[in-house]
Amino acid sequence: xxxxxxxxxxxxxxxxxxxxxxxxxxxxxxxxxxxxxxxxxxxxxxxxxxxxxxxxxxxxxxxxxxxxxxxxxxxxxxxxxxxxxxxxxxxxxxxxxxxxxxxxxxxxxxxxxxxxxxxxxxxxxxxxxxxxxxxxxxxxxxxxxxxxxxxxxxxxxxxxxxxxxxxxxxxxxxxxxxxxxxxxxxxxxxxxxxxxxxxxxxxxxxxxxxxxxxxxxxxxxxxxxxxxxxxxxxxxxxxxxxxxxxxxxxxxxxxxxxxxxxxxxxxxxxxxxxxxxxxxxxxxxxxxxxxxxxxxxxxxxxxxxxxxxxxxxxxxxxxxxxxxxxxxxxxxxx
Length: 334
Fold this sequence. Notes:
This protein is of the alpha+beta class and 334 residues long. 30% of the residues lie in helices and 28% in strands.
């Protein structure tokens, strides 16, 4: 408990001391691995689970997500701040639905070490059976069972929310850069359509921008500004509570895919001389001022779509996001 309290103290700080943060995350990783019997080298634990709307990570890969320092810090800090906001206006417990817990429920153990069972309650969803069994093992060893309203081994894209749970906050971080391959989008669409409009979604907003990039300048030793390594062409997809209602009208199914609105963008040939990579930028507003910006995390590393050095196609780009067996970005040139 003392270790978790110290970890929570570091992760909640507004300012980031990277040495302090790295030590806190190392302590956190050591703690959760010591509490579990997970074998990360076991080949079966490395196998992802595939669905018609994307994949759920194998237990090993889900466990190792804790090592992404800024991702872990900002999501936990954002959740703390969201809980504090709800507590200002609500009597009784704050009820959090956590979809895709992985084997450690990384985002909520520091929260449980900070608040009482009367203050915060959790509904847990995890589709991977090994991860599901492990997370319950970890929570029980910590004596946190009283915080759990329900724990379900189920696909969150099809989960039916229990109206008696009175959800205040929905949390899911089942994603990669560019929202590729994993099920963040269908999970959020399914759950947020079932809860009240005032329910807080974490992350509040994920934005995908397409850009022209100079990859060499991005990774140059000197600190170039974004304008020096990137020309933004515009956002083409946003996952937020406000957009979900809009997507009910503007998205459609085609050949088993859920297609979102397409954006057409005209490029300039002169821009391709210096910015010769077509890329997608992922920005994550977790809660309020708690954000993960470009290149701060594995989630926000620019996703390179194509090298345009010898581009011979048209200069009009059509681009959109699609949910299928392998969710991701579709684009074409005209």
